[in-house]
């Protein structure tokens, strides 16, 4: 199978689907471009379903696919102190990848500008006119896509050199209880009533979809992932002893690992091949949130293509947020700050809407300085001074379990 188009989008995750949808709906007066989206066929090569969370003001373009949304976040310290914060005018939103894929698939079905091809990209080759994507379909048949521009969302085989790399690794259970246990009006954003590891930090995370149903996750920020038994042991302790779930049924599971690194992810592989999404640095290093940055990045790429400009994806975050994250990661990794105390203090002293805007990289210098006064200044300053003398090292990328 040989296909030609202006654009080839490799991978149908959050970044690939978001870019394909924007290219399928060119704004009035824009220059349309044709695109091929290479999506892995159903089977072992397709990524398992996962949950994305993000916040935005008011209604958004994907609201009809949401599982739930909330106006309140809750943080609990290790000793049980509860911080309950309203986040209006923002809403915290839960989107399952399967629902997003179904929504985007329905919107681009039969579209004149975007074609979906079920194939796994094996190699991207630079050519005089652009690039050639070599792929394989479900039956092993060869698929070649010739395009002027290629946007590759596949995760790298190695992470770029970094001064600090921690892993945000987690396992979650979709839980249904016999009696009401969960507060469906608020997300348990960070619950530090979990046994803390020797290095890093851990917390519970609860996305309640009803009084008797929730996604309950155990999350660690540390250098190494756990085995499945360790995750399940921690989840059992948190669900049964901390949350007091009583009789419950586990209806599903999800598990993942997100690099938290101050590495500089390259946005361009060759003259005509670009990276998008997490592969291009869309993951916020200090938190692991990615979805909102993916939307900003793919919107900019689509606008450039529709205007006939060179479509280099923009950096997901400006220099100042990246530097602040590098300092925090260094301080956490070197044990300069106590993780649970650090995040609890932030939520106690900074209004939640401002803190969420900070996590999205949307605060001013004055706001950043005011937030900086709420953290251990001496410890953070020590890491800031140590950063220039810390060597960068490359590490293998950690795949989703």
Automatic annotation (TrEMBL):
Pfam family, one: Lycopene_cycl
Record SUPFAM superfamilies: FAD/NAD(P)-binding domain
Highest taxon above the source species: Bacteria
Name recorded for this polypeptide: Lycopene cyclase family protein
